Amino acid sequence: MKLYLKMIAAAVVTLSSAMFMFSPPVFGFTNDSPEIPIASVHPKGDALQEKDISRFTNAITQIKDFYVQPISDKKLLEDAIRGMLSGLDPHSEYLDKDAYKTLLMTTSGAFGGLGIEVTGEYGVLKVISPIDDTPAAKAGIKPGDYIVAINGKLVNEMTLNEAVDNMRGKKGTTVTLTVIRKDAKAPLSFKLVRDEIRISSVKSDMLKGGFGYVRISEFQEPTTELMISAINKLKQQQGGHLNGLVLDLRNNPGGLLDTAVQVADVFLDNNKLGGEFGDKIVYTEGRLPSSQYTAKITPKGPSGDILGGAPIVILVNEGSASASEIVAGALQDYHRAVVVGIPSFGKGSVQTVLPLDEEHAIKLTTALYHTPSGRLIQNKGITPDIVVADLQVAGDKIDTSMVSPIREFELKGHLAGSKTAPNAVSDDKEDAVNLARTDFQLYEALKVLKTIAMLNGNVVATVQPAAVAATAKK
Prior knowledge:
With 474 residues, the protein is α+β, with helices and mostly antiparallel strands. It has twelve helices and 19 strands. It folds into three domains: 2-95, no CATH class; 110-198, PDZ domain (Pdz3 Domain, Roll); 200-268 and 305-346 and 381-474, Alpha-Beta Complex (2-enoyl-CoA Hydratase, Chain A, domain 1). Helix content is 31%, strand content 21%. It starts with a helix and ends in an 18-residue tail after the last helix.
């Protein structure tokens, strides 16, 4: 047993050193930083003492000797690593073989499960956001929900990885989630059918009046190219010009940092910014030199940004996190976009994936994001320029005077100025009613976008009438 304890102690010291000596790329970056000397990592007086190692090894001995069931050394070691990571913050975690594989799959756009982005909080799972067109989104899971039980088993009796594993399964099988929701009088029960989750990260549509709509549900490797292609198609439909764009980042839990930087860069023309904020899109600050990172706007030709300066409105909500907040914060700082909705999630920390071997890794928080002007995203999020709550228009009939003002020709007994009534205006009102009913925040965003376009003199007559997007609520 003494030999065993010495081996464990040696493993602890080796592990402690290896975790900080290795400096791979931050997940989503390319960073060729050299190895970091031990002296720059551990403050003086913070080294492990022999009594500390003794306390750890004694705990292992007591567990092996007295626990109600036999337990393997491998499980004790893995649980020790999990415990170290879980005690740091909600986003640092141990990635075992399955979790590491899943992480790599989700960034490429295909994985199995229910389609929920979660984080650990208060010993249960907090929903950051459901992913579009997945079982979770279709069932009505919402950002901010707390998953307290899976198939009747309490989440606080599981590790984060165990809880996620219990939600995974073969396509077509069912899982029941018990959810606590703010303002709900009792826990809610959702019976979901598992499916293969294939994320189409970009969707687009035309809005009335030559305005475009692009939704990004997650920042994956192909997202930037898909977004550019979608915008170019919308422009083509309108004779090569959009009067403006709604960029919908609601319920977007984030993804790859590189992709977020590329997406923001598409709309920023450094020739018109005059070097403001040093042309930064985002920068990070951390304890170690390798965690310092700055992404800048790439030099562009005469064409400038993809919209040629046409106004942008970005939609955010409490499910907009991480990479979504980077894009919204950058475009907001440069006054390139007006942000509409409700304050975002506030996840502004950088996680570095540090491999432990070929099949295991740890995801460790190493830095904090800042917007170009220096605003800290962590715990604060992005505050919209115009706050619009996620309201649901109720009832079969809507007071159309609240949607758009009454015109003279709509008044009873009005004097006719011509033989034909301006039906197009009536049609516009009906279209506005439909959009307000299906997605109130998008309806308000379009109103803001139209106002900015008119003030800027950016409105160009459309080539052909564009159908208003009766976009279903995302």
